[in-house]
Amino acid sequence: MEVLLHKVCGRPASRTMTLRAAGPEDAAAFYALQNEVRAAMPHPEQFVPDTLENIARYLKEDLCIGGWDGGRLGAYFIMRYCGQDAHNYAAFMGIPREEWDGWANADSAIVHPDYRGNGLQRKLLEAALTRLRPGIVGIGATVSPENQYSLNNALASGFEIVCRREMYGGYDRYLLAKALSVTFGDTARVAAPSVCFAAARILAGHCPNSSSLFPPLAAVVAVAPERHWRVGQAHAGRVKLNLYRKQ
Questions:
Q1: Measured between alpha carbons, how far is 110 from 74 in angstroms, rounded to an integer?
Q2: What distance lies between CA 49 and its chain's CA centroid?
Q3: How far apart are CA 136 and CA 100, in angstroms?
Q4: Per-residue confidence at 181, pLDDT binned at 50, 70, 90?
Q5: N or C: which end of the chain has fewer CB within 10 A?
Q6: Over the stretch 77-130, which tens digit does the pLDDT of each residue have?
Q7: Of 126, 139, 129, 155, nearest in space to 95 by CA
Q8: CA 238 to CA 121: how far, in whole Å?
Q9: How buried is residue 199: exposed, middle or buried, by Cβ count under 10 Å (0-12/13-18/19+)?
């Protein structure tokens, strides 16, 4: 898949980047890009890095998309199939365990500063969605509340904030969900509506390891597909949660 780059190194450009599925042979390039980008972040704690060993395993077992500018890796996206593993974000959203196999983790999206401003995080996600394993009906993700760039990209891509909690051994994170649509005949419906009710349970504090720094939230959730979606309703491919703090 070719995408047009409008900006490179902060200057106008007009050339293409190739988005393609990556494999174990790309592990060193993924690891180097991760470390380079994290080192340049003003707040490195916003991103929890992975080991080379883990990245090589993801490239072998999961869905990984690399963005290549000629021979240079400029961006990548990792989607993990965690299944029944406790690291599946579905576990923290209260999704019944028998449904975990239908959920994938949007694990990480990395873009080198030279290529920012081209919407690559969203384009990488779009490329991954076309290659998802059959049976995946929802995607979970986490974002640091301080990482406004990635949070805005996630929200623009159809993710919704489920809750704010400690993750990864004490890091402050938003937990987000994106419900994918499935088609029955000519009608598109929101898949895995249980995410709505699971989110309601989570926000009331009934989720695994709910001993969080943050007070419980309550949720009002309505699922009613409409042509024009409104706050509190579901749109094909998105679930919107109304959130408010308990008084």
A1: 8
A2: 16
A3: 9
A4: low
A5: C
A6: 999 999 999 999 999 988 999 999 999 999 999 999 999 999 999 999 999 999
A7: 139
A8: 18
A9: buried
